[in-house]
Amino acid sequence: MSRVCEICGKGSNNANRVTRRGKAKKEGGVGKNITGRSGRKQKPNLQKIKALVDGRKKKIKVCTQCIKSNKVIKAH
Fold first, then answer.
1. For residue 9, what pLDDT is reported?
2. Which region holds residue 28: left if phi is over 0, alpha if psi is between -120 and 50, else beta?
3. What are the pLDDT digits (tens) for 32-43?
4. Which of 66, 48, 65 lies closest to 57, judged by CA?
5. In a domain? residue 76
6. What's the structural domain count of the chain?
7. CA 28 to chain centre
8. Res. 1: pLDDT tops 60
9. In terms of CB atoms within 10 Å, which of 19, 35, 38, 53 comes out highest?
10. CA-to-CA distance for 57 and 55, rounded, in angstroms?
């Protein structure tokens, strides 16, 4: 099973981690300069929950936004 929400399809996202050096202008410096960029992955906040799917209890991976917005009916 991959790292994807089974309700909305939210998955991981690629981004850059930016490294800077120097002192900010508002702190009296000459400004910050970018010295490097390295790739990183932003992962969704997925939870394994028991939910009702087609009238049956099933364990599924769901993002927290779908849980908060009641897109999933939890099975007790």
1. 95
2. left
3. 999 999 999 999
4. 48
5. no
6. 1
7. 36
8. no
9. 53
10. 7
Q: According to the model, what pLDDT value does residue 45 have?
A: 96
Does residue 55 belong to any structural domain of this protein? yes
Residue 15: how many other CB atoms lie within 10 Å: 11
Average pLDDT over all residues of the chain: 94
45-63 per-residue burial string, b: 16 or more CB within 10 A, e: under 16: ebeeeebeeeeeeeebbbb
- In a domain? residue 44: yes
Range of the domain at 62: 13-68
1 falls within a domain: no
Which residue blocks in 1-76 are alpha helix, DSSP H? 64-68
Q: What is the pLDDT of residues 52-71, one digit of tens each?
A: 999 899 999 999 999 999 99
